[in-house]
Amino acid sequence: MLRIKSSVLAPSLALLLFVDGCQKSADQSPAPDSASNSSPNGAPGGTRNGPSSSGKSSILDSLSSKPLVVPADTTITVVLDEPLSSKTSESGQNFSATVSTPIEIDGKIAVPKGARATGVIREAKSAGRFKGGAVLSLVLSSITVNKSSYNVETSDHSIVTKGKGKRSAALIGGGGVAGAIIGGLAGGGKGAAAGAALGAGAGTGGAAFTGNREINLPAETPLSFKLLQPLEIKR
Prior knowledge:
The chain is an alpha+beta fold. It has a domain at 71-233: Lipocalin (Beta Barrel), CATH 2.40.128. The protein has helices spanning 2-27, 51-64, 175-202, and strands at 68-70, 75-80, 84-85, 94-99, 103-105, 108-111, 116-125, 135-145, 148-151, 157-161, 168-172, 207-209, 216-217, 222-226, 231-233.
């Protein structure tokens, strides 16, 4: 009986050892090499994204976003959106205007026609009753391009009339305004445009005869200013 039991247990034990060994082999099998599924450049799925292509893209982005620099001494020409007067305007008062001539830098429009501009009246002085002329001095303070506002520093555009008995209007900063004064007195905005052309022909420092010692600039009057500092326009 003992011999029979031994003959039965031996094969069973061998079978158990065989099954246990197979189980361990399965548990210890190596995991798939993840590197074999990667592309030579290490990008999954074989997508190439080499350093050369990304470098070119960053250079192009840098060039396209480089701001346009409007140099100092550039002339900015605007037309008034509202009337100004040495009699009714006040020193420190803001005024609005519209750029009438686009500014190009390296073949690209830095400041387009129609851009909004704001300015400040540096000095507004009414003519004296018996003596002393009128003064109206203006500067631009900001320009809006593509919904971004930029502070600017410009030269003054000043107009001075002489005292009582002197009917001439001395002009500092541009001949167009003297003509605009004549046009404004003659017939408002349209007259101002025609008069401005006449005044521009006279040049800076020209004199315009008026029947009023006050300085009146109707809406649509053209004015010119020069930048004192470079202006960077972001793109």
